[in-house]
Design goal:
By secondary structure, the chain is α+β, with helices and mostly antiparallel strands. It has one domain: Leucyl/phenylalanyl-tRNA-protein transferase, C-terminal domain (Aminopeptidase), CATH 3.40.630.70. 36% of the residues lie in helices and 28% in strands. The strands form two sheets. The protein has a seven-stranded mixed beta sheet, with helices on both faces. Helix 3 packs antiparallel against helix 4. The N and C termini lie far apart (32 Å). 33% of the residues are buried.
């Protein structure tokens, strides 16, 4: 299956996302009847223990300082859907201004990060990882703040899990998601 940047962006704009099967380099478009969202309003929350970490300013934030490092960090697990082909696609999306890495750093060490695609006022989170405890959680909190400040409407987490629920993640029906996505796509926003 051939993928070019315009068709990939069009697929995401229609509510689909790319994944490879673990151990397989074939890609496919996927959707979900229940789409997970990270709230960008007062429903967003995080543990009090994380508030202390944020107040200590142990991490610095960067966007796209080490995009490849974030992709590799997200793919570095026992089972991964980020295949070599998908890594190349993310790189092309990054090169053309669609994909971003939102990173936390401790000095010169990449502590954690979130990989995502920004289209209009929609940020589609693809994956996250950490190398230093709390690195990805701090990235989540500060990314939500940035998305709010920049006028984003939607933070799509694709599939929910207990970790995301700790931040207030919730699911909506596919039909409702597509309505919200179209509204978000119509809003010009920039992560930078």
């Amino acid at each position: 299956m051939e993928f070019d940047i315009p068709s990939i962006i069009q697929g995401y704009a229609k509510g689909y996302f790319l994944m490879a099967n673990d151990g397989d380099d074939s890609l496919g478009w996927y959707s979900s009847r229940q789409r997970a969202l990270i709230p960008l309003d007062d429903r967003f929350r995080y543990p009090k223990s994380l508030r202390r970490v944020l107040n200590q300013n142990r991490f610095q934030v960067a966007v796209n300082r080490d995009f490849v490092g974030v992709v590799e960090g997200c793919a570095d697990r026992k089972t991964t859907w980020i295949s070599p082909t998908l890594k190349k696609i993310y790189w092309e999306l990054y090169q053309t201004g669609w994909a971003y890495s939102f990173e936390t750093w401790q000095g010169d060490t990449l502590a954690g990060g979130i990989l995502g695609i920004a289209i209009g006022g929609a940020f589609i989170g693809e994956s996250m990882f950490f190398r230093i405890p709390e690195g990805s959680k701090v990235a989540m909190v500060l990314l939500v703040e940035r998305l709010r400040d920049r006028g984003f409407i939607l933070f799509d987490a694709q599939m929910n899990n207990p970790h995301l629920e700790r931040f207030g993640a919730y699911t909506i029906r596919e039909r409702d998601y597509k309505i919200l996505l179209q509204k978000a796509l119509a809003r010009p926003c920039s992560l930078l």
